[in-house]
Amino acid sequence: MSHGETLRKVERGSRIVTVVPQDTKLVLQMPRGNLEVVCHRALVLAQIRKWLDKLMFKEAFECMRKLRINLNLIHDHNPKVFLENVEAFIRQIDSVNHINLFFTELKEEDVTKTMYPPPVTSAVQLPGDPEGRKVDLICDTMRAAMENINPHKYCLSILTSHVKKTTPELEIVLQKVHELQGTGNVPPAPDAVSAEEALKYLLLLVDVNDLYDHSLGTYDFDLVLMVAEKSQKDPKEYLPFLNTLKKMETNYQRFTIDKYLKRYEKAIRHLSKCGPEYFPECLNLIKDKNLYNEALKLYPPNSQQYKDISVAYGEHLMQERLYEPGGLVFARCGAHEKALDAFLACGSWQQALCAAAQLHLSRDQLAGFGRSLAGKLVEQRKHRDAATVLEQYAQDYEEAVLLLLEGAAWEEALRLVYKYNRLDIIETNIKPSILEAQKNYMAFLDSQTATFSRHKKRLLVVRELKEQAQQAHLDDDVPRGRESDLFSETSSVVSGSDMSGKYPHSNSRISARSSKNRRKAERKKHSLKEGSPLEDLALLEALNEVVQGTEKLKDEIHQILKVLFLFEFDEKGRELQKAFEDTLQLMERSLPEIWTLTHQQNSAAPVLGPNSTANSIMASYQQQKTSVPVLDAELFIPPKINQKTQWKLNLLE
Amino acid sequence: MSHGETLRKVERGSRIVTVVPQDTKLVLQMPRGNLEVVCHRALVLAQIRKWLDKLMFKEAFECMRKLRINLNLIHDHNPKVFLENVEAFIRQIDSVNHINLFFTELKEEDVTKTMYPPPVTSAVQLPGDPEGRKVDLICDTMRAAMENINPHKYCLSILTSHVKKTTPELEIVLQKVHELQGTGNVPPAPDAVSAEEALKYLLLLVDVNDLYDHSLGTYDFDLVLMVAEKSQKDPKEYLPFLNTLKKMETNYQRFTIDKYLKRYEKAIRHLSKCGPEYFPECLNLIKDKNLYNEALKLYPPNSQQYKDISVAYGEHLMQERLYEPGGLVFARCGAHEKALDAFLACGSWQQALCAAAQLHLSRDQLAGFGRSLAGKLVEQRKHRDAATVLEQYAQDYEEAVLLLLEGAAWEEALRLVYKYNRLDIIETNIKPSILEAQKNYMAFLDSQTATFSRHKKRLLVVRELKEQAQQAHLDDDVPRGRESDLFSETSSVVSGSDMSGKYPHSNSRISARSSKNRRKAERKKHSLKEGSPLEDLALLEALNEVVQGTEKLKDEIHQILKVLFLFEFDEKGRELQKAFEDTLQLMERSLPEIWTLTHQQNSAAPVLGPNSTANSIMASYQQQKTSVPVLDAELFIPPKINQKTQWKLNLLE
Contacts of residue A618 in chain B, CB cutoff 8 Å? Predict the structure, then answer.
């Protein structure tokens, strides 16, 4: 049967005789003449809604229970009204069993959205609790009302309201049951439920082992025994355990229980209070359960325990290859030697030097350490930092200058040379380095230009082929729309066509850069392979990368142009300036050809036009949708060549 | 009359009698019975093309001259063939006058593209010279051929070929005329033209003053006199001038002529050869005409003159506020003091220190200079560089640490503190700075979040209003398409509506940042003013900026989190980490709401659909085109929040 409330299958030929007013009954006459009464759901729900609006909860509840309408509707129909009239609801129902039934059926789902959507004429649709805390809210509101009306009478319902919460409040429930046992001094209230009864009821709702564990978690052995007795557990098993526990010092006892219940955070908190002789056990648990952060809060920062936990934490982080955080943890607790290793491993050179300072190394030791640190920094291509370390900690400004030259930090290299008055290094190293770099830049620009032109040429070919294929499609006027069709055609055209669009094998001369580029290429989303379905996107991506790579060179080029001029290598400077300008201009001129308006807008232009029909529009719209994933939208934005960046040295004009 | 070659107006009722075969004549019978002969252009051009294809230049030329067909067609019809058969052309024409006529009509325009487009049946269309050097190419090719056939006979045509070049080669022409005068020893060739005749002819082609100036430019006084005599110039004027020149030393004479002709580059070249006593005059001219670059090439780099010119150049650049280039020029010629000032002015601190080193300053002088340099660098917010200068050149590591703290370079500050073993600074300055910075970041994140939410809320309002307005449009089904209409409606709705979308006055607490933001805001393309036509774009732009501004903070936040942890300000660290994470999450969650697919594609989605008609599609397409300029396309790409950036310190979880 469908959940739609208005449709109901009946025998063919049935006739409606009447609808009973103010009721949910519909009288039908069957083809054979007999009368039948059905409660049509549309009528039922309409009636229930009316009752609920009038706060006639009793009538609504009875009817829903009889006709098995989900009880959540009582709340969901109008949450605000229900929550404000919970007392009326309870007083009208006036039955612990029925209230428990209501609790049992509660769920987060809003049945007015799923099972019983209101008819279209319904006026306002109130939004449910957006936080998805519906059940918890009802439980808490109902409990408050019941405790107000008669906590004894509604005892079991109150317990149910705790159990039904998203995180069942079993400790509270157990505590309340425990209270029912009373001390024997106060006579039980007349309509009170006995602890026995309550516990029995509870075991219907909750798994006995759960309840036992939670009772243990209260550290209240009376409670534990009470539950244990009701459970199927063997007293020979749990009694010795409880007796052992009882003999323990309170904190250690609680620790043992926490550990048994796998509540490790609580466990170390209790263990930490047991005195220093238990610290090794505590530290083991901390390491075992990775509770360093929680553990550090339990000890004062200047205690030995704090330091021990920190060292263990740091070592754990190092194992996870989290060197910098590890170093920070070591540094914070004064484990400078370990901090030094950690910071060295991750190239946090300033922190490493701070740690080294606190180890009071000899001058030679410091120099040696400086050298390893510099080596690490060079690996990470941080030449300036490496040079600072060598100059200031290893007193080796000569090596520092060489590193600066390797890192193309020309002006900083010059500064050191003048600082130490070693102008001879200009001739022996600086000038040759600059000239070498100029040569490398020339070669790099050459390869960038070649790649750019190759990709651009191929892109135009691919677009042409695609357009032809698409045209063929539109001519058919059959929206096949499946990309694979489109591209299998294209690729067959490609493989059979002339070689003009094929790539010559690339032969980059800058090895450092090319390996970097290779790694980048591997990360690419689309394949540049000829005839691959999204080859045009791959080409756009590659072209974008070439342009951005060139654009990023501006500052470096400006730096070298300045020193080329300074050392009177005007010709070399002019040559590089010209090459770079030509490269930029080539790219700039080509941008509108590559990032055309048409292709920018997903070829939106050809879709509409004097010759388009409704079919052709829909067909190509369909095609576009499938062939260009939205995620690639940024590919259709041309890269920026910033005209304002002042890379050029006008002195070299 | 139109240039179309196939249409020709004739009297109504005219009849074609016959077309003369192998000729261009068309015989018509007029309504009154008389016969008329016309050369119909279609026939004429067809015939000319045939002749040209058969290399019958004579026939083609004669016909074209008679019927006033532009002579460029001889070349343009098939440039390759013509240029390969220039000798045949000259030999067939065999007339100096006709050849000169041909030269005179030459122009860059390709007449087959403009005046005489070939009929559609024409087979191949050969592209003209792409470089637009057509005239020069014809002149040079023809001249070579004429000099080969008979240089004496074609003398005047040869001269014409020089004059007709894009840059007329008047010196060469004058030289050739001069040669015609002969030395008197060799008898003139039989068919030779006299110098007199040639000069007369030349004056028909070229303005006499131009010719006089160019003759002067050859530094050949015979030539000058020859031209001067033919000109209308008063000998009392030019003779004294020429006599004064004649008395001068050759280089000075040439300098004087160059200067007179305003050829300043040549002028300084000649003046530089006149000896050191003329250098001041030369330097003045260099300064006056801004010829520093050219002048520097005339003197050896280690000469005093080179240095003097460089200094003048540098001073010129300084006046133009080009401090860095100025400094480079000074540094290159060894003007270290001036270089120092220049590099100081632009904050090129390393270069400035190089210059200072070469001035052999005292320790105190160097320290003083270091302090001003550091001040300059702080102005440019280069705190690290400033600290390096103070530490290494002013021996003031304390001030260096303070600058590093100001620049949020916590780890570098710590390094210096440990390097100089001044751990007391940690308590007195570093920790307070870190805590202050934490507070500022908190406030900044607060204001970023507020701005973001405000703009986002307003954007949704604006979109709603726009959609309503657009809907009203579409319902009319009249594509008005004019944006102003659309938005005058919108803005009137806005001004009359409730205040919920209005901004409260912003009250940023970070003054340094807010002034930066203010400057940024001034650069914005669109107005955020409420109801402004592109307010939604302005909001997108502003939102993009807020997101990017937050995204850029990641590294700074990571840095401060590390030191907060190191100094056990865990709570402050956690607080900042949480605030930053919340800010990022708020933005991230909102991105799809702000950069919706619909608005990303220029609201392309609502254009098509089951309810759209051809009219509605076109109307909204039209509207989109006008309302969203393509330049703003990038506004529709959501900013990136890079998930991979590791800004978070897990230690603070």
Answer: 608
Q: Write out the two tokens for B366.
A: 């160097």
A321 and A342 Cβ atoms separated by less than 8 Å: no
B359 has a chain A CB within 8 A of its CB: no
- Is the Cβ of B525 closer than 8 Å to some Cβ of chain A? no
Q: Do B419 and A353 touch (CB under 8 A)?
A: yes
CB contact under 8 Å between A602 and B601, yes or no, is yes
- Separation CA A251–CA B138 (nearest Å): 108
Report helix angle B349-358 to B383-393, nearest 10.
20
Which alpha helices (H) appear in B248-301, and where do they start and end?
250-260, 264-272, 279-289, 292-296
- Name residue A37's beta-bridge partners: A27
What token pair was written down for B560? 């401060």
Q: What angle do CA B166, B170, B171 make, to 5 degrees?
A: 130
Nearest residue to B110 (alpha-carbon basis) of B139, B89, B131: B131
CA distance B119 to chain A (A): 29
Q: Note the pLDDT tens digit of each residue in A150-159.
A: 988 999 999 9
Residues present in chain A in total: 653
Cα B454 to Cα B147: distance, rounded to the nearest angstrom = 83
Neighbours of B377 (CB within 10 A): 23
Under DSSP, the state recorded for A479 is -
Q: Is A500 on the interface with B (CB under 8 A)?
A: no
Residue B199 has pLDDT above 90, yes or no: no
For residue B16, report the phi and psi dihedrals to the nearest 5 degrees: -80, 125
Q: Which residues of chain B are within 8 Å of residue A421 when distances are taken between CB atoms?
A: 357
Nearest in space to A137 (alpha carbons), one of A129, A145, A146 = A129
Asked if A431 reaches chain B (Cβ–Cβ under 8 Å), the answer is: no
How far off is chain A from B108, nearest CA to CA, in Å? 25
Q: pLDDT digit string (tens) for B312-349?
A: 999 999 999 999 999 999 999 999 999 999 999 999 99
Give the C-alpha distances (Å, rounded to integers) separating A30 from A18, A72, B404. 13, 35, 94
CA B262 to CA B271: how far, in whole Å?
14
Residues of B in contact with A600 (CB under 8 A): 630, 633
Q: Do A325 and B392 count as a contact with CB atoms less than 8 A apart?
A: no
CB proximity list for A6: less than 8 A, separation 6 or greater: A41, A42, A119
Contact (CB<8Å) A418/B354: yes
Q: Which of chain B's residues have a Cβ under 8 Å away from the Cβ of A602?
A: 601
Domains of chain B by residue range: 1-124, 285-429, 430-480+532-652
Q: Categorize the per-residue pLDDT at B524 as very low, low, confident or very high, splitting at 50, 70 and 90.
A: low
pLDDT for A610 equals 45
Q: In angstroms, how far is the first alpha carbon of chain B from the final one?
A: 88
What average pLDDT is seen over chain B? 82
